[in-house]
Amino acid sequence: MKTLLLTLLALIGISSAYNLHAKTIRLSEPVVKDEVSETFGLPTDAKLPVISIKQLADAPADLVGKKFQIELPITKVCQQKGCFFIAQAGQQVYRVSFKDYGFFIPTDSGGKTVLLNAQLVKKSISAKQAAHFNSDLKSSADSIRAGLAYELVAYSVKIPLEQG
Fold first, then answer.
1. Domains of the chain as residue ranges with CATH
2. Across residues 17-25, what is the average pLDDT?
């Protein structure tokens, strides 16, 4: 009986480890891949102006509608499809969506600092949308709130293979 119990516990442990690993969802393939990164969406455009998180936080209204490059840390990724993520720098929280819902990122990309080619938009988020987004993040905290918000629409997301 003791052996049976130990065997069952071992199988549950193996199954749990497998399920944790199997939960990463990759619905898009990278358009560019090298030894250190994968790029989703379009290849990055190095000609775009580079802005900092501080510039974005200090004068978002000045950047609405403009395309630029920015590095941001991913704090949370949609766990349903990888169809958006949350980037947070200090008190500033941004939802990052993907142009025309045209690509997705791996759901295990949280904790990595990514390079975006993006455009800033100002939009209204309903309570229903905010609840939906927060549900997709599978987070106990409400990262997205209803109301007017700035959102980054990414054309390209370059993700390091390992953070370091």
1. 28-160 (2.40.50)
2. 60
Cβ–Cβ under 8 Å, residues 78 and 137: yes
Looking at the chain, the whole-number percentage of residues with pLDDT higher than 90 is 60
Q: How far apart are CA 27 and CA 83, in angstroms?
A: 9
Contact (Cβ atoms closer than 8 angstroms) between residue 144 and residue 127: no
Please list the alpha-helical segments (H only) found in the chain: 2-22, 53-58, 60-63, 127-137
Q: Are 72 and 53 in contact (CB under 8 A)?
A: yes
DSSP of 117-138 = EEEEEEEEE-HHHHHHHHHHHT
Alpha-carbon span 87 to 75, nearest angstrom: 5
Residue 137: pLDDT over 90: no
Q: What angle do CA 40, 43, 47 make, to 5 degrees?
A: 135
Instruction: Give yes or no for residue 50 having a pLDDT over 60.
Output: yes
Contact at 8 Å (CB) between 146 and 125? yes
Q: How many CB atoms lie within 10 A of CB 105?
A: 30
Question: Taking a C-beta distance cutoff of 8 angstroms, is the pair 120, 58 a contact?
Answer: no
